[in-house]
Design goal:
Layout lengths: L8 E5 L26 H14 L3 E5 L9 H10 L3 E6 L6 H10 L3 E6 L4 H8 L4 H14 L4 E7 L7 H10 L4 E6 L4 H5 L1 H4 L3 H17 L5 E5 L19 E4 L5 E2 L20 H7 L1 H5 L16 H4 L4 H8 L15 H13 L5 E2 L9 E2 L5
Parallel strand pairs: 1-2, 1-8, 2-3, 3-4, 4-5, 5-6, 6-7
Antiparallel strand pairs: 8-9, 10-11
This protein binds iron/sulfur cluster (SF4) (2 copies).
Length: about 375
Amino acid sequence: MSAPEPPMGLLAELTHRCPLGCPYCSNPVELTRAGAELDTATWLRVIDEAAELGVLQLHLSGGEPAVRPDLAAITARAAERGIYTNLITAGVLLDEAGIAELREAGLEHVQLSVQDSRAAQADAIGGYAGGHAKKRAFAEAVRAAGLPLTVNAVVHRQNLDRLSGIIELALGMGADRLEIAHAQYHGWAYANRAALMPTRAQVDDAVATVEAARYRLEGVMAIDHVLPDYDARYPKACMGGWGRRILVVTPAGRVLPCHAAETIPELTVETVRDRPLAAIWNDGPAFERFRGTAWMPEPCRSCERRAIDFGGCRCQALALTGDAANTDPACTLSPYHDRLRALAEQDAAGGTGCFVYRGYAAQPRRGAVPGT
Ligand code: SF4
Ligand code: SF4
């Protein structure tokens, strides 16, 4: 069997620690604690191994990557090895000097998450008082450092009615690009879906709002809109296809084909402490399990889209059908599609709007978004 093409990108989850507690966070419900994180020397080795494997882009993520004092050193190593570096941050820990240091280390792009257009609502969703104001200051520092800025906004029932305001916020921050992504219902978002699932009317309004803004802002700010899975006819190629374009290294060094893949118990996950990155990518059992199309059941097996979307998301298939090898229920051809729609409608109709914050505590904090 020939070796797969090298991955385009490495998503380096440097830590799960984060001052915010977003209820839709894509980190696993069982968060890795600081003492179990890879040390600096191991991360530098991982960057070297990624460069040798042919990785072109490094996404420095978390949790909040800026809690790591070695963020600049890791960035610098990637830049020395010719890897493009992108920081994905909540923007509440880095001041002007911090972003200037990262720029000096070779950082090339920043993605800043925002929770809402207004401070009270944004701080309530993130569970962090004063966060919204810090993000605005951070965006200014990024622009002052001459770095391109993408604003990421995860949208859901609690903030979709202020989508126009979120677009104006990103514009005011000087973003080159705004990525509006509907919450993906894994991990923390799955636990909070009754508070977060949007109504059908909200999703329809969002499509119209984004279309109008794209037309108005053409050439000023690009806007990506990632629609909820249950609203599409066919699923997206999750991570560009399992084991095809991206690999993820978790804070503890586990190497995954997708950031949510730890939810699939049948996978044998290796770590960067066990084997070199290239070996894990090339023939690691977690990567081989759903790589390509040979593993597919019907209807994917004989579908003309099988090499386009690769059967969609394995984690969603597991969560909703009990078997990660099933066709993603987001696909209208899946025998489980009606189940996905029924769950989405039930969650959108129910719930009090109260959610639990992501965090380490056995008894997590609860919150709700104040009215406007
Ligand atoms: S989604 Fe929120 S809690 Fe999770 S890492 Fe990002 S900022 Fe932190
Ligand atoms: S049946 Fe499978 S391959 Fe075909 S569109 Fe649906 S998920 Fe994609």
